[in-house]
């Protein structure tokens, strides 16, 4: 039996494919390659196409003996989603509908879903628990919440079991050095800081230092991408064991401010990283930190790459040896 990984050529998808390959899993990857990179897929069978293309997706399910799906394929830029929500509803929500309908037709009853802390919006509690209110402050988070809800109704009607993994801030790169983070355009803090360290940008812009936090900059919970990947492997195993549908937060439980991230990157790289304070970026909550207790107890998830220094060092190794990202 094979695991279908949609978006398996993307940042978190490719690290999950690597983790599945290490377990000897048979893998089928579907990716449009609009954001993903062919060379990020370290193994398995790659189909290049769009989930919304019914004939294409039908062929993927017909040609392979798939028993579980891990669903990453989606647009994921908060800022872009505010300017073009239609793109997010079409690709994320309609794409997921096409996928669930194909799964139902082919009696594939297990899906692990790539969700986000953006489903919570401005948090009620710190750290955030899975039962906390979900009130997204951006269209991206709203589409991810809609995708989760769609899965709930497909479970009730058709028995498709889902595990939704709500990530906090993914960072770092695979220890082999073969895969890492390469977004075009790049909007995430750690890769941008490292691009500044490499001299590819004149400085890092700090978006706001007037938040209600100790140093005035936003606090986030950074989690190593390979630890996230492990959680997907565990989630597939749990669904194969007959588990009910569930939602889990995935984070470190420890928050770091933008200024702390920049300071640690200066230490790790030994480079001078100039920073400039700029106005707040719209839609940024002040503090996002996860409680991942449920994932630890129920999934048996045990993230091991917890130190932010080590996470940034693994990203630095990737960025300094691949300053232009993937060749393709
Ligand atoms: N930041 C800067 N300068 C930059 C880039 C980012 O100061 O050049 C700040 C942001 O304002 C934010 C923090 O660094 O306070 C982290 O920003 P990222 O863009 O790296 O990450 P986000 O927390 O905004 O977003 C991440 C994921 C989203 C997801 C969100 C959920 O990238 O997909 O977490 O919380 F929706």
From TrEMBL:
| Chemical reaction(s) catalysed | UDP-alpha-D-glucose = UDP-alpha-D-galactose
Instruction: Work out whether the entry's keyword set contains Isomerase.
Output: yes
Q: Offer one Pfam family short name for this entry.
A: Epimerase
Molecular-function GO term, any one: UDP-glucose 4-epimerase activity
The EC code for this enzyme is 5.1.3.2
Q: Does the keyword Signal apply?
A: no
Pathway field of the UniProt record reads: Carbohydrate metabolism; galactose metabolism
InterPro entries according to UniProt: Epimerase_deHydtase, NAD(P)-bd_dom_sf, UDP_G4E
- According to its UniProt record, this protein's enzyme class is isomerase
The NAD-dependent epimerase/dehydratase domain extends over: 3-251
Keywords (alphabetical) are: Carbohydrate metabolism, Galactose metabolism, Isomerase, NAD
Q: Name one GO biological process term.
A: galactose catabolic process via UDP-galactose, Leloir pathway
Q: Which SUPFAM superfamilies match?
A: NAD(P)-binding Rossmann-fold domains
Q: Name the coenzymes or cofactors required.
A: NAD(+)
Q: Which family does it belong to?
A: Belongs to the NAD(P)-dependent epimerase/dehydratase family.
* Record's subunit section: Homodimer.
PANTHER family under this entry?
UDP-ARABINOSE 4-EPIMERASE 1 (PTHR43725:SF53), UDP-GLUCOSE 4-EPIMERASE (PTHR43725)
Write down what this protein is called: UDP-glucose 4-epimerase
């Amino acid at each position: 039996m094979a695991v279908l990984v949609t978006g398996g050529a993307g940042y978190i998808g490719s690290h999950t494919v690597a983790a599945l390959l290490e377990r000897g899993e048979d893998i089928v990857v579907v990716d449009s390659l609009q954001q993903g990179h062919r060379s990020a897929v370290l193994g398995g069978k790659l189909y290049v196409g769009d989930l919304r293309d019914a004939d294409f997706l039908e062929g993927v399910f017909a040609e392979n003996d798939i028993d579980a799906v891990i669903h990453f394929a989606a647009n994921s830029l908060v800022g872009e989603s505010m300017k073009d929500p239609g793109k997010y509803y079409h690709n994320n929500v309609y794409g997921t509908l096409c996928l669930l309908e194909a799964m139902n037709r082919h009696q594939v009853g297990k899906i692990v879903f790539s969700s986000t802390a953006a489903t919570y919006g401005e948090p009620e509690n710190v750290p955030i628990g899975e039962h906390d209110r979900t009130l997204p402050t951006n269209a991206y988070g709203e589409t991810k919440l809609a995708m989760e809800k769609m899965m709930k109704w497909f479970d009730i009607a058709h028995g498709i079991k889902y595990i939704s993994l709500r990530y906090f801030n993914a960072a770092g790169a695979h220890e082999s050095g073969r895969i890492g983070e390469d977004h075009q355009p790049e909007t995430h803090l750690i890769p941008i800081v490292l691009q500044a360290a490499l001299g590819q940008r004149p400085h890092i812009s700090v978006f706001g230092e007037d938040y209600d936090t100790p140093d005035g900059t936003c606090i986030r919970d950074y989690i190593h991408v390979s630890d996230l990947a492990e959680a997907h492997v565990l989630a597939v195993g749990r669904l194969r064991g007959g588990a009910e549908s569930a939602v889990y937060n995935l984070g470190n439980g420890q928050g770091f401010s933008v200024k702390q991230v920049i300071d640690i990157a200066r230490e790790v790289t030994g480079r001078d990283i100039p920073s400039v304070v700029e106005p707040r970026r719209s839609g940024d909550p002040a503090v996002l930190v996860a409680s991942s207790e449920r994932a630890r107890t129920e999934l048996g998830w045990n993230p091991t790459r917890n130190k932010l220094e080590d996470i940034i060092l693994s990203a630095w190794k990737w960025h300094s040896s691949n300053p232009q990202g993937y060749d393709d």
